[in-house]
Amino acid sequence: MATVVETGAEHVEWDLSDLYAGDDDPRLASDLERARAEAAAFRSRYAGRIARLSGAELAEATAELERITVTVRNVVLFARLRFDADTSDESRGRFLAKMEEESTAFENELRFFELEWAALDDAHSDEALAAPELAHYATFLRAQRRFRP
Questions:
Q1: Cβ–Cβ contacts within 10 Å for residue 107, how many?
Q2: How far apart are CA 139 and CA 108, in angstroms?
Q3: For residue 128, how far is the Cα from the chain centroid?
Q4: Which of 10, 90, 104, 116 lies in the 20 to 30 Å Cα band around 134?
Q5: How high is the pLDDT of residue 49?
């Protein structure tokens, strides 16, 4: 039988209240609901149009994508940190699994952006990336194209 070594950190719990008060925090549910609506609106507005966006429009779309993604990632981060603090708590594990499932649904809803951007020919993407409005997102957008066929 393995010897359990106490470290003094056995009862340490991170203060995650900057993110959410708990898995039943109403802000968490409202953030997910808002992100769902924003993702659906984003898809409706931009799906099938990425190749036709001006540099300024692409910058606006990328900023919107970032806002949605950050909201969802904060929810998953909260769930991950709660679980990491006590991996023996089955309710935390279930909550993490549920939030990861939510995250996957968002990724699927928004995947068109990455695919359409990667499908652009190099001349078109280089022209778009030359727009001063895209300077902040140029590294991200270039990275999205690095594994294209």
A1: 13
A2: 22
A3: 24
A4: 104
A5: 98
Mean pLDDT over residues 105-134, rounded? 96
| Integer CA distances (angstroms), 67 to 24, 42, 61, 95, in order | 23, 11, 10, 23
63 contacts: CB under 8 Å, gap ≥ 6: 137
- Residue 127's identity, in one-letter code, is E
Residues above pLDDT 90, as percent of the chain: 85
CA dist 118 and 146 (Å) reads 8
Alpha-carbon distance of 1 to 95, in angstroms, equals 31
Return d(Cα 112, Cα 108) in angstroms, integer. Answer: 8
What is the DSSP secondary-structure string of 17-53?
TTT-SSTT-HHHHHHHHHHHHHHHHHHHHHTTTGGG-
Q: Is 48 left (phi over 0), alpha (psi -120 to 50) or beta?
A: left
Would you tell me how many other CB atoms lie within 10 Å of the CB of residue 80?
Answer: 16
pTM flag (> 0.90)? no
Asked if residue 68 lies in contact with residue 35, where contact means CB atoms within 8 angstroms, the answer is: yes
